[in-house]
Amino acid sequence: MTPGRTKGMGPYLLILPAVLLLGIFLVLPYLNIVLMSFRVPGQGTPYGVGFTAGNYVKFFTDSFYILQVVNTLWIGLLTTAICLVVGFPVAWQLARADMKFRGLAYGLVLSPLLVGIVIRSYGWTILLGNNGLINRTLLNIGLIERPLPLMYNALGIVIALVHVFLPFMILPIMAAIQGVDPSLHAAARSLGASKTTAFRRIILPLSLPGIQAGCILVFVLSLSAYVTPSLIGGLRVKTMAVTVVDALIDTFQWPFGSALALCLSVTGAIAVVIFARLTRMKWKAS
Amino acid sequence: MTEVSIEKLTKTFGSARAVDGISVRIANGEFISLLGPSGCGKTTTLKMIAGFEDVSGGAIRFDGQDVVNVPAEKRDIGMVFQNYALFPHMTVEQNLAFGLEMRKVAKPEMRSRISRVLEMVQLTGYAERYPRQLSGGQQQRVALGRALVIEPKILLLDEPLANLDAKLREEMRVFIRDLQRRVGITTVYVTHDQAEAMTMSDRVVVMFGGRIAQIGVPADIYERPENLDVAQFVGQVNLVKGTVREGGSDGRCAVETTFGVIEVHSARMHAPGTAVTLTLRPEAIELGAPGKGAKGTVLSSYYSGSLIDYRIELEGGDIIHTQAFPHNRFADKERVGVYAPADRFWLLGAAA
Amino acid sequence: MSRKVLTVYCLLVYAFLLAPILVVVGASFNAGSFLTFPPQGLSLRWYVTFFNNEVFMRAIRTSLWVAAVSTVISTLIGTAAALYYVQHAGRGKEAIRIAMLSPLLLPEVLTAISLLFFVYSVGIGTQTMFAMIVGHVLITLPFVFINVSASLETFDPAWDMAARSLGAGRFTRFRRIMLPLIKPGVIGGALFAFIISFDIFTISFMLKGIGTSTLPIQLFDYLRTNFTPEAAAVSTVSIVLTLVVVIVSEKVLGLRIHRF
């Protein structure tokens, strides 16, 4: 270190508050919840004395929960896939096209992030409800006779989740495409590749890290989404996150709730790892 | 007015010796260049003089006082950085005022000093501009002004012209040199550009691998290089192999070469028959009709406007480069006489 | 895809992104008692109802208070951490970055639950706003960190050296050179932290004490049982508040906020 620059303990004081905050209020609570998931359920208290693996046994042997995990994963996958298909062209246009209203378009992509998740989900209930804007309009024009079932099912949840998380897909992909030197595309063209081939062979592989980041982000966020499934799915369709939160808020089943939450998170993490592996192998092969 | 004395200065990074025990005395008002390829330790040396880099060993003295333990902000140096390092959120005037504020200079004096320096660097009328509103050359002059306005003991410049285009670079060489002469400030200039070092400096310090290869006035460095590294670094050079015919004890040495027997200066005795290498700069060579000097054949020529470069194969197979004014043109494959005056040959290692 | 098709496609996506927000704003001016389309005339009656609804007004005050406190804390902690990360971190640099972003990478539900159990295990509980504010600081910290480190990365170390060569001590250099140059990043990070905090749901939902509901919680509770356009009026006011913050930061202060 150069003389006069902060010496000794000085620099560590800068990082100390963050270390304390994350250590005490993130690491310890996470360790605590793992411990909690092995505790004996209590009678009238959040948890009893002693430890057991029973919470996990209950989870893995109850088809209700397994089915719900599958359901949640399916909704997450669907949301991610749709976000990718819907978001990629937008990310591409934002990154590359010389548009007059690029700033405005960028603002539009960002705008959902600036509006609370409750409000956005609420907006979808207005649109998708049986008396909602879409059904009313279709009924009025006479295209349908009975309201379409858009809400209180997986379809409604996926539509709303795609909306809620789309910016998280678009922004990393846009950043990745912007990071690809435009002359590479030109170089590929000069070597005789068609526009499509240049895109497929050059741009797509090079923007893969952004796609990967976007997919992981959307998938993880949709697995743990609570507000949207809760408002759109109502009581009929429940995702894991909703079940977990309700189990804790309403019934105070702390040990079992912890086990549920951990199983959900670990499942999500495994899915992410598998996805990262798959895309990385593809990256090496291409 | 300060004399800088560097003694056995060393800088180690782990086991690597970036600067390996160098010693230089820089006289009051002298302009010295540290010249060398990247990684030779010249910038590290400058940073140690400035106080931005710890010293692993040795001493740096300003007028006899060791400053090794003085922090950079107390050393009273003026420094110009490669990318100028102008404060982007301050106007030209505020940039110039910064160092004066640190020295608690009174407002009226500050104003007069700033306007004097602005005039000196030819930027009167630019006081209110922000750095980004200035061209590269103007930013360069602000950086120079900012370093000089505090009237420092010494001026340090770290490759200040590297980011300018060729034409501006040549103008700035003259500008900086004239300014330095007028102010009379002791100056250390770091560069990897030999032409820059040659045209600007009183003396040049050539560095390789953390050590000083040669210290001398520009003409010494160019015409009497200490070793092959120096000879090749400061310009194109032909190497002429020879055999010592007579060692000579009078500081002279007769060497047999394709150019005939050449008598060169040598402080050292050489046994007859020793193989030696002489250097010969391309522009020292005269080409003419066959007969005078060595016999050669033109291989190719390169026209560059003011000069023509020839590649010539000597009898015996050696290939040399020459540089000549284009008044006398030779065609490819033409046979020519290759001549150079004896005093333009230089025996490598002669001073050792 | 040809350029025209691409443009139309993108416009449709933008419409999709804006639709639910526009619908909420539109619904807030509905004169009827229920959310009906087309609206039964235009009216500001639901705004009047909202402004006279002490429950919602208290929720807004709580939200603003929680957002303000957690923004101040996470700006201080996040800026200091970013300073360390960019200027002093050696080999552990990547680890620090991941640790600082971890609240963003971990599922919010899990963080909320963990924190809930933890505050009860150590006897802090949720009677005070402490737990909720800690949760908000955790979630907003990454945004401050991202923005401040981004502006620090563009800080040229030569500026600091130049100031030193001109005689400036450490404190002066920080105050006169570094602080003004990273100010946009700090303010941008703080504004983003404020906006994020204002919208945090799951953390607040799990960690709220009695009578300390933030606006999103109050709105959520309301929506589970009511369908009047009052919720739309509340939402619109919330959107406008956020928009004002963003426009002021972008236009007046000329800031660019880094999201990633």
From TrEMBL, chain A:
The keyword tRNA processing does not apply. InterPro entries: MetI-like, MetI-like_sf. It comes from the Bacteria. Residues 69-275 form the ABC transmembrane type-1 domain. It is a multi-pass membrane protein. Signal peptide: none annotated. SUPFAM superfamilies: MetI-like. One of its GO terms (cellular component) is plasma membrane. Belongs to the binding-protein-dependent transport system permease family. CysTW subfamily. This is ABC transporter permease. The lineage of its organism: Bacteria, Pseudomonadati, Pseudomonadota, Alphaproteobacteria, Hyphomicrobiales.
TrEMBL record, chain B:
Gene3D superfamilies: 2.40.50.100, P-loop containing nucleotide triphosphate hydrolases. Part of the ABC transporter complex PotABCD involved in spermidine/putrescine import. Responsible for energy coupling to the transport system. GO terms for molecular function: ABC-type polyamine transporter activity; ATP binding; ATP hydrolysis activity. GO terms for cellular component: ATP-binding cassette (ABC) transporter complex. The complex is composed of two ATP-binding proteins (PotA), two transmembrane proteins (PotB and PotC) and a solute-binding protein (PotD). Belongs to the ABC transporter superfamily. Spermidine/putrescine importer (TC 3.A.1.11.1) family. It comes from the Bacteria. The keyword Acyltransferase does not apply. Residues 4-234 form the ABC transporter domain. This is Spermidine/putrescine import ATP-binding protein PotA.
Automatic annotation (TrEMBL), chain C:
PROSITE patterns: ABC_TM1 (PS50928). Its main location: membrane. The chain crosses the membrane at residues 7-29, 64-86, 98-123, 129-148, 185-207, 227-249. Keywords: Cell inner membrane, Cell membrane, Membrane, Transmembrane, Transmembrane helix, Transport. It is found in: Cell inner membrane; Cell membrane. It comes from the Bacteria. It is a multi-pass membrane protein. InterPro entries: MetI-like, MetI-like_sf. GO terms for biological process: transmembrane transport. Residues 60-249 form the ABC transmembrane type-1 domain. It holds the Pfam family BPD_transp_1. Signal peptide: none annotated. GO terms for cellular component: plasma membrane. Belongs to the binding-protein-dependent transport system permease family. This is ABC transporter permease. It comes from Mesorhizobium zhangyense. The lineage of its organism: Bacteria, Pseudomonadati, Pseudomonadota, Alphaproteobacteria, Hyphomicrobiales.
